[in-house]
Each structure stands twice: as structure tokens, then as C-alpha cells.
Amino acid sequence: MASPSNAPSLPCRADEWSVHSDGSAMPNPGRMGLGAVLVAPDGTRHTLSEAAHGTGCNNEAEVRALMAALQALKARGVQAVRVCCDSSVVVTQLGAASAPPIARLAALFDEARGLLAGFERACVLWIPQHRNQEADALARAALGLTQPRTVKPHRKQRRS
Q: Where's the RNase H type-1 domain (predicted)?
């Protein structure tokens, strides 16, 4: 399994599926919505939008959304995946051995690592929120929220 990174998204390999995943908790903590866009190598798109059982925080919703997407891909027999996620917590927890564990979510992250290890090739990349709006909308729709979230691209401030 390739380790997660903050590298910019590169084009997928011929046999690789791409996934954009996002989770939402309303309020935080609260009900959790999971969203993902799964794109096959031929460009065919599939979406996932579901409410998670129970309540949790945004970080839990984010990792549960990633796990739901991975489970859907495994059910399709996929062997290579590139996951794009706007949660730096998820990317760090899944990839950096030196990342201090989040005790309450440690078992969940272990489960996610196990799912990733089940693929011949897998990587998790961080992307900014404005590049993950469709997955965010699917996560919010699972909670009955139809108003789009306004996400502005991060811009560097100029020094005077």
C-alpha cells in the first residue's frame, strides 16, 4: 500500500479507481453523513450518500466515509484505488507512523488501514475543500441538508 501524502493529484493509472470522500457531523458531534464519488478507470461515476448509524464528530464521519467507499470498491473487486480527502487528520492518521494517535478513534483508523491494505495499490491524498465539493454535498444530503456549503479557495496573503 502506498502511504498517504499531501502530493497533488496525478492522473490515475489505467486500472486505478479514484475516490473523493467526505464526512459531515451535524452538529459536531452529532448525526453523521457520509459521501463519496467513485470513478472507474473508464470514467464511469458512482456516488455514495448515506447516514451513519449513531453519532460522532467530523473526524469520525470523515474516516467512516472513506471506509464506506473502500468497502464499496472491494465489493466491486477493485484492486487499485486513489482516495482524495479534504481531512488532514484522516490523511495524517492513515499515513504518518509518527502521528500521535487519537485515542477515541484509534480502532476506527486501524480498521481503515486494514481496508486500505486489502488493495494491491492504494493511496490517500489530501485535497483542499474546494476540490471536494461533490463528496461534501453527498455527505450533507445524507443528513437532509440541501443548501451547499460555501467553500472559498485558500489564498495566500501578501506581505506588505
A: 13-144
In a domain, 25, yes or no: yes
pLDDT in tens, 60-76: 999 999 999 999 999 99
For cell 467513485, the residue is 38
Per the structure, the count of domains in the chain is 1
- Whether residue 158 is contained in a domain is answered as no
Tens-digit pLDDT profile for residues 28-52: 999 999 999 999 999 999 999 999 9
